Amino acid sequence: MKNKKIFLITLTVVLVVIISYTINPNGNISNQPQQEIKISGYSSVYPALKVLTSAYEAKNPNTKVSILTPTKSEVSIASVKDGLLDIGTLSRELKPEEKEGKLEYYLLAKDALLVATHPSVSNILNVSTEQLKGIYSGKIKNWKELGASDAKIVVLDRSEKEPAKNLLRKYYLGEDLKISSEAIVLRNESEVITAIENTPYSIGAFSLAYAISNNISVNRLSLNGVEPSIKNIKNNKYKMVRLIGITSKKSPAKPVQEFVNFAISQAGKEELIKSNFVTSTDK
Fold first, then answer.
1. Domains in the chain, ordered, with CATH?
2. Please, which residues bridge with residue 129 across strands?
3. Are 93 and 107 contacting, i.e. CB atoms less than 8 angstroms apart?
């Protein structure tokens, strides 16, 4: 009976010890509870953030960085202010009136907006501004009009409120061009990538860094003879370049600040460079 009591006491102590500790993904026992950092915002920044979070979590197993469903930049900014999110993602700078003395903005890198076609579109490696306008407006309806296959052009578009569409309009389409009613409007960049990979004779725009890093099988189009490349981002020849930025509170919780510190550090920049993003220290 005495031995049984000793056994039960010992078992209870062991259980208390186990409950008091957290086993991290590497199998090591830690007395630190897992901390979560919640991120959301503009979807085009997600590929870069996923690179950073993967590297950060590998070094900090007690921190879980959750990249949530994409949302508009304005929504993510408000959510950071209200404490619903820890970090918001933006493909532009934070406006002074958005900061309200509460937020900090960090520019992490730059990325090109690539215009590409499905591999089924042959013999076209370059398009001019007028040709791109014709495609998006519906005046040019068939690829044979541009010297390619006899097939209807499938335009994969984005909402007029999206920064990616704003870039297309700013540099090539113009503010007043009426987009074809047959264009397929997709919600976010991941949908564009999936659609362009799986839709013959389609054309759309998405991240150059993502296309290179993930070896996406598409035809990368030069625009007015300028190739979409890291070199041409650096020398400012390629026009459609967008910012990869994040925002957080001025004095965030310690885990959030530590992640931000990593994201803007040389180690963080090196991770982004390896994934074909252009940073301020990338030569």
1. 32-110+242-274 (3.40.190.10), 112-241 (3.40.190.10)
2. none
3. yes
Express each pLDDT in 1-52 by its tens digit: 545 554 444 444 334 333 333 444 444 444 555 799 999 998 889 999 999 9
Cα torsion angle, 268, 272, 273, 275, sign: positive
Q: How far apart are CA 134 and CA 136, in angstroms?
A: 6
Amino acid letter, residue 66: S
Strand partners, 36: 64
- Find all residues with CB under 8 Å of 181, minimum gap 6, and list them: 138
Alpha helices (runs of H) in 21-72, residue ranges in sequence order:
46-59
CA distance 283 to 227: 19
Do the beta carbons of residue 67 and residue 53 sit within 8 Å? yes
